[in-house]
Every structure is written in structure tokens, then in C-alpha cells.
Amino acid sequence: MPPANAASPSVAAAFAFDMAAVSHPGTERNDNEDACVTHRESDQCGLVAVADGVSSYEGGEVASQRATEVVVRFFKEQGPGVATMKRLVRAVQQANIEIYDTAVVVPQLRTMCTTLTALVLDRGEALAAHVGDSRLYLIREGQILQLTKDHTVAAERASASLGLMSKERLRNHPDRCVLTRSVGRELIVGVDRITRELVQDDVLIVCSDGLYNSLDESEFPRVVENLDAASGCRALIDAANSIGAFDNVTAAMVRITRAPAKLEPVAGLGNRLRRWFR
Q1: Average pLDDT taken over every residue of the chain
Q2: Mean pLDDT value of segment 73-101
């Protein structure tokens, strides 16, 4: 009997994607505490991840690099016989445990931690596990939607204000970078789980805060339009650096080049919003 996640030949032929990830120190820093990784398991399944080491603590670059390495390693070790979301969340939890354990035994790294947003493409579906304030966006039909929630003090206050805090005020809030949740800080970490059905020409962007704090997210669709994944990543980073990226800048991009036509036709804005937010 084939594994639970095995794709039929018809599904395999109907789904294809292009993915890449690029990281850059930015225009103001010599070191890079961001890390990114891609892993293609098959023609139907691939993983991208972005981690941003917390710069206010020692070992941020160690934490981010370890997080991306462990996520890929543990995702591969479990194998496709395990449900995809379970594999992904277990991999993030394993990264958290290994970073925490290292911080306990190495005094110089005692407070190290990182954000981590990992995305798996699996036969027409996007599955993500998220901790911190790196972000996952979906670009569809020229519109962009943030799929993740920032685990920051400012974002929690904005949520508590029931939408009364403006986007501009949130962007400039003094606590916008103060994390309420990160990988490696505690032995157990809460992991947000996100799933989305994909259609052809969808674009997914995973990025560190150095990108969206430099280049407004509304510009992302224009910057990556008609570009392959590798070119799109470089274009986003170049655009951020041209403005003056004061932080490290990392972008991972996935473009769905072929997908089954599963979603109902869109007829007007109401249907589009219902489809995206269901």
C-alpha cells in the first residue's frame, strides 16, 4: 500500500512549483542573523523556511541557522508516511528543543532565540508553521494577503484594540519588534498552523521583518510580477536595499506554475474575500 501522502499520477501531473530563498545583510549591517533554506522532496512537495535570530541576544545567527537546518533534517527524517502538517510542526518543535538545549549548556548562547516561519507545498496545498514576526504572504490576482500573525507586543495590542490602531501607527510602534513568542526561548513553544488551497499563478512570500519594514508589502506584487522564484527573491531584496534596509533582509518565494482548478470561479469582490478568508 502506498504511503498516506503518496500522490496519484494525475495529481502529480497537475501540480508544479518553483521556489527559491535569498538572504542579504542589508545596507547598514556587516553581519547577517537571518537564515533561509529550501528543500524539494519531490515534484509535488517542497519546503522553504526563514528564520531571524533575535539580535538583542547573543547567538542570534546561531539560533537562526540551527532552526533552518533542524527543520529540514527532522522533516526529512519523518518521511512522507506521516501527515504533512504533523511532520512540519514536529520539525519546528524539534528545532525549538535543540536550540533551547544548546542555550542551556553553552553560557555564551544562554539567551539565544529566533523567529521561524516554515512553509510546505504539498500537492496543491500550502501548509505553514509559524513562530515570531517573520511573515508569510499570499499573492493572488495581483492582491496580497498576510497569512501569519506577528507574535509581538505591538501586534497583540493592535488586536486588543479591535482594529482601531492604524497600520501606520503599528508600523512605527516602539514595541513592533518585541517578540512575545520565539523559537528556543522556552522548552515548549506555541506554533501557529496555517493551511491554504493553491491555484495556478499563486505566489507565496516568506520573509524576515527586514524586508517588510523596508519595502511596503503593497509593493510586493508589482516587484515579483512575472518573475521566477530566484529572480523574485533578488528583486525584493534589491528593492528593499535601494530604499535603505537597516536590518538583514531575507525573502523566500514560491510560484505555483501548475495546479488543479479546485476553487470556484470568482465573481466579484465578495466571493473573492469569502474564498480567501474561509
Answers
A1: 88
A2: 97
Angle at CA of residue 14, ends 235 and 138, nearest 5°: 35
* Exposure string over 247-269, b if 16+ CB within 10 A, otherwise e: bbbbbbbbbbeebbeeeeebeee
Cα 229 from Cα 235, distance rounded (Å): 10
Q: Which of 202, 209, 145, 155 lies closest to 181, judged by CA?
A: 155
In this prediction the pTM is 0.86
How do the domains of the chain map onto residue ranges? 15-149+180-277
Q: How confident is the model at residue 55 (pLDDT cuts 50, 70, 90)?
A: confident
Distances (CA, A) of 96 to 32, 90, 251: 20, 10, 22
Pull the grid cell for residue 70: 533542524
CATH no. for 15-149+180-277: 3.60.40.10
Q: List the beta bridge partners of residue 143.
A: 140
In angstroms, the CA 209 to CA 247 distance is: 8
Residue range 202-215, pLDDT digits in tens? 999 999 999 999 99
Residue type, 160: A
**Residue pLDDT, tens place only, 118-155:** 999 999 999 999 999 999 999 999 999 999 999 998 88
